[in-house]
Amino acid sequence: MKSVFGRYIPRKGFFYNLDPRLKILVVVFYVVFAFMSKYYIDSLILLIPLLVVYFTVVKKVKSVFRMAKFPIVMAIIIFLINLLTIKYTDVKQTILDNEKIDQIAKDIWGITYPQGDHTFVVSMLALNRSIALFLRVFTMILATTLLTNTTRPILLTKAIEDLMFPLKLLFIPTQIIAMIISIALRFIPTLLDESQRIMKAQSSRGIDFKNGNMKDKAVAFSTLIIPLFVSSFAKADDLSDAMQTRGYEPYSKRTKYRQLKLTWRDLLVTLSLIGLGVFIAYNTYVDHTYLPSIWTSLLAIY
Length: 302
Fold this sequence. Notes:
Layout: H1 20-36, H2 40-58, H3 62-85, H4 88-97, H5 101-106, E1 109-112, E2 119-122, H6 124-149, H7 153-163, H8 174-204, H9 214-245, H10 264-285, H11 293-297
Antiparallel strand pairs: 1-2
Membrane topology: Multi-pass membrane protein
Keywords: Membrane, Transmembrane, Transmembrane helix
Main location: membrane
């Protein structure tokens, strides 16, 4: 099955008709506020609309679980690092010095070996941060995937170039940068499909990518990486030849017949993002909040 990550899916819908410049700003908004959110309710308010839009566009549930693999692995690694690095005495002293029940609930239990210095601490704060990392990275990946799924590559190039217009005042070739970014995004699904094809070809020759020790897996993946690099350079050469034969000159002055215009849909999305940003910023930076106490005590990310 071909991956939908980075691949344009030709369909019609509300999100397809949005201005591509606004879509890029929406992705930036989601990345910034996902890492700025302080409570789980903020992260869920950001994530749930993305999931709804993604299911209406892709209409596949398995692809969501595929995208969630990398954030889950990152969250587990961060949780294990916290498990091995946080000192039990530090957590115990924090509980003794603080009389608040919610702070005690953040450091629920410690597993201590009485003989030796080996100490493992499982705290609610470390667990919250691991889950928050998963939600933030998953939101970022999902927003970027929706951008590429619902925007044609040529419109994405035009939007990036328009957003970088102030850099033209500094004599920076924004059209070249926009072309590089759009080609890189376009090559992501191609390389994913190519890697799957190479893995199947190498597996038919007896290469085992799943079993064996670290050395065997390193040797096995070298049979994937080297052909993938060779194929990537070959595709890049073919693309450059095709662009040259069609008369592409990056430094020449170009005219464009595609003119991007804002509509009522863009205004509606902009107002919604402003309201959402005010809500998250208020919960993050204002001490007094109207949220239930369970969100501000037990379910705070930090």
